[in-house]
């Protein structure tokens, strides 16, 4: 009844949000416009009420152009391959010059792939960029079947096949494990679409290294606890009715609880900016939370298998990870250059967890391995923001360029 209870509460609040939006429209007309300090506070309160909402649909990437060389080039988003649990998207930039093809593997951890909008925008300067656009499990009918960790690896391999030989792969956060597994499987099979480089950014290759609160929670409870406390059936109004999922709204609550004071402070600042008419400052905060409050559901099997196989058993690090019953051996990777990136202040995936990939990829010669530690950035700063653009991205670009 967990999901139904959430939906019932949201349905109760919806009329209040709608009323606040209508009053905002009315207050902006010539008939009546609040003036003075009291009026500005009134309209600010209306907007805060209207924003009290979690959305469950992917926002638009809103990437329409990119700086390529010394000019802004138009960019269009193309659907390359559409599958039930994920779509392969391409950001096609208008340029005649051949560019390295990069598959960005987005996390499937409660937020949509648009969380990597800044990552994609930066990569577009020098690359032909593709991304895994994961579906909201509540919108996938039961007839589509299950989607677990092995299926996730299958999707990565299938997407790389569609892109073709000579591509590169960049995984952010949670899918670093599946990306490494996919490259290992493809390398062992001598698959022609095995990527030339593999960049793993802030991912739990070995979560036993410097455990964070996220790691500690995963190992402190039994699988039965996760199944009984966090898994719910999708309500009947949605296409995925009856599918058992880990709801995105629960993941959002978990993320926010880690830094609740920061989120409360951000919303106090938002209210103040709105009341003072500081639209530019308010817009920055609103844009962030529009993205942050857009959540997707994960299938039960993927979530539970991730808890068990990635965090509780650390199967990749211990050499016990399998793909459809076959042992995954990163030592089979011999020609795919490896770059790992970690943030010095990452409180989700701490130091050592991602760089553990270097020991696992024992078949790689030293000149095909590189690690980059970015001081003074947290988890989000590894793949977005000023230091990603100015300091981390050049390292990624140079690794890819060296293997072209």
From TrEMBL:
SUPFAM superfamilies: alpha/beta-Hydrolases (SSF53474). The gene is phaZ. It comes from the Bacteria. The keyword Ribosomal protein does not apply. Keywords: Plasmid. Residues 202-401 form the PHB de-polymerase C-terminal domain. This is Polyhydroxyalkanoate depolymerase. Coiled coil: none annotated. Gene3D superfamilies: alpha/beta hydrolase (3.40.50.1820). The keyword Cell wall biogenesis/degradation does not apply.
């Amino acid at each position: 009844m967990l999901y139904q209870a959430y939906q019932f509460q949201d349905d109760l609040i919806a009329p209040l949000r709608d009323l606040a939006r209508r009053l905002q429209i009315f207050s902006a007309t010539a008939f009546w416009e609040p003036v003075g300090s009291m009026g500005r506070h009134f309209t600010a309160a209306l907007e805060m009420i209207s924003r009290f909402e979690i959305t469950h649909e992917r926002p638009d990437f809103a990437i329409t152009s990119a700086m390529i060389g010394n000019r802004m080039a138009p960019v269009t988003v193309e659907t390359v391959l559409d599958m039930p649990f994920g779509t392969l998207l391409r950001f096609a930039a208008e340029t005649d010059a051949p560019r390295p093809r990069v598959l960005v593997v987005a996390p499937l951890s409660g937020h949509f792939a648009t969380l990597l909008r800044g990552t994609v925008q930066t990569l577009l300067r020098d690359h032909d960029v593709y991304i895994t656009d994961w579906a909201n499990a509540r919108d996938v009918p039961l007839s589509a079947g299950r989607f677990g960790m092995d299926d996730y690896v299958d999707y990565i391999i299938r997407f790389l096949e569609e892109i073709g030989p000579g591509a590169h792969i960049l995984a952010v956060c949670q899918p670093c494990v599946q990306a490494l597994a996919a490259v290992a499987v493809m390398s062992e099979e001598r698959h022609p679409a095995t990527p030339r480089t593999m960049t793993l950014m802030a991912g739990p290759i070995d979560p036993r290294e410097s455990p964070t609160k996220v790691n500690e929670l995963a190992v402190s409870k039994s699988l039965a606890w996760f199944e009984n406390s966090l898994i719910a059936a999708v309500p009947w109004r949605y296409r995925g009715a009856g599918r058992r999922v880990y709801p995105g709204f629960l993941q959002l609550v978990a993320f926010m609880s880690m830094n609740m004071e920061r989120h409360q402070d951000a919303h106090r600042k938002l209210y103040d900016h709105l009341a003072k008419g500081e639209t530019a400052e308010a817009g920055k905060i609103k844009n962030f939370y529009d993205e942050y409050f857009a959540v997707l559901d994960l299938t039960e099997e993927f979530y539970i298998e991730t808890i068990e196989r990635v965090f509780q058993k650390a199967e990749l690090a211990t050499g016990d990870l399998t793909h459809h019953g076959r042992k995954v051996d990163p030592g089979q990777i011999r020609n795919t250059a490896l770059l790992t990136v970690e943030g010095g202040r990452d409180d989700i995936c701490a130091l050592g967890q991602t760089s553990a990939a270097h020991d696992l990829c024992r078949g790689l010669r030293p000149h095909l391995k590189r690690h980059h530690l970015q001081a003074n950035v947290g988890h989000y700063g590894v793949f977005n923001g000023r230091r990603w653009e100015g300091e981390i991205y050049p390292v990624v670009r140079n690794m890819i360029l060296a293997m072209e």
